[in-house]
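Two entries, shown back to back:
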Amino acid sequence: MSFPEPTAVPRPSPAYARVFDCPNPVALVTGSGAPRVGRAIAMALAEQGCRIALHANTSTDEASQAAAEITRRFGSEAIVTCGGLQHDGVADRIVEETHSRFGRIDVLVNSAAIWQPTRLENVTSDEVRRYFEINALGSFLCARAAGLKMVTQPSGGSIVNIGDWATVRPYLDHAAYFPSKGSIEVMTRSLAVELGHRNRRVRVNCIQPGPVLLSQDVSESHLQSLAASTLVGKIGTPENIAHAVQFLCENDFVTGVCLPVDGGRSIFAPDGLQVGMNTG
């Protein structure tokens, strides 16, 4: 889906213009229809002057509203691409739709993912397979499709995968989910080598978010407990993740990195063992 041409001129980012040799680079953000982390990333990139391809599976109406908001607020052209990444051909199609519309693709952010708690004894092979198809294989196929476009561009491109900090300390009742997210880290390093070997201006990195978007029904006591579990003593925001994406896109000396944006949660536990009881 496309929308009317913007009437305002998007403000270019000098850093992005330098890195991508284009005043208004093109960014595709998967899983950016619903108002979650992907949406915040798309908005932040639009604010930097990027032309945006949003992607949604079921949240197409919300994606259309977001595209209209991007054009209204930032003057950036925006389109909506649709489809479930578990289906054959969808990853290639949404990248092709983006490239055909804009004539280039400079940034891909793999934000689409699914998760829900399931007790180990209730996990089915179909559930594990679906996690891998969407979280892992979907990200890989999008990155491959976009990366093979980027290597043909003199300016290269930047791919940012969204992982999960908790692959190092998995939550209970998510045994089907974490293997799919753990693969994102290895995938990032492998694709950084594969694509960087073909064009040294193509970079692939990963962000591992911590607690940044909580359910609205979380109690105040639970919220305080989650805040205390971070080293910085607070819950993060989707904008914290979006800012990290901006950094990885504009810093052309960073590739193959898995960056926790988790308030220190991956290195800290509020159990006293790191403070005063650290006896080995």
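entry 2 starts here
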Amino acid sequence: MDGLEANVYKGRFAPSPTGPLHAGSLVAALASWLDARAHNGRWLVRIEDVDTPRCVPGADQHILQQLAACGLLPDEPPAYQSQRSHLYEQALERLVAQGLAYPCACTRQDIALALVATGQARQRHGELVYPGTCRHGLNGRAARAWRFLTLNSASNTPLAAVQRSQQAINFIALSEPENTTWHDRRLGEQAQNVSQEVGDFILRRADGLWAYQLAVVVDDAAQGITHVVRGEDLADNTARQILLQRALGLAPPIYLHTPLVLGTNGEKLSKQNGARALDTDRPLALLETAGKTLGLELPAGSVQAWLAGAVLQWRQIHRLKPHH
């Protein structure tokens, strides 16, 4: 925590500077801002530039300007993941010391071949479910990446074959049942068996860059984030992040995943499928469109009047009492 009282609401919007905001990302930004204001809380912006090869120079400032044009101003200076590597390093070292992280030598082709050999050649959202090849050691191969150990149940035995401390095995067996469950304020009860549906996921990539899952968990804790409001496409990451929070002894935030804006192809609107940058010459129109996705209907007016009304409506829709 950062010295604020534990009951102070803190939310955040965490864009990746791979380009300007589009209609879909404005929905997530607006929802997180509204939730913070409806709770009388604080709202932060964190620039998630940990994947440096994909970052576009100047995109961070463009994003901040777009937010400001729509009246969405953070309560603190923006934080940058690229300046927080020492925190991620400390977290990885702790997980390694606990026996909950291990080096991996596998390439994507290695993983695909291993899955084919065991008759498990299925893909999950285009990703290969890691079969645990390097849980038992590298067998003389060079380490490429670091993974989180998700071994968690009788269906993933034999535990004795895993070269980890008994303490770590007990931790996993006790704290991670078949499914990791959590409550989403919009989607309701959620569950995922991370070991079977994802496998041991990456913490540090083969190129030396930090993986999103570790960075976001460390950052949310370091910034004292109490509530995470983000797009529904990220709901699938939540179980992995909860496992990391448990392993690092961190309190999980409360989650709300917002509806997605879809492109003409029926898929999530994104830079990859032609999402256009927001034209902030008409910010009120942008807010009205984003608000409709979130179930908000307000009369036209100034940006500030619209935002004030939207906070009240958000509070009613989500049955919130102001958070002091």
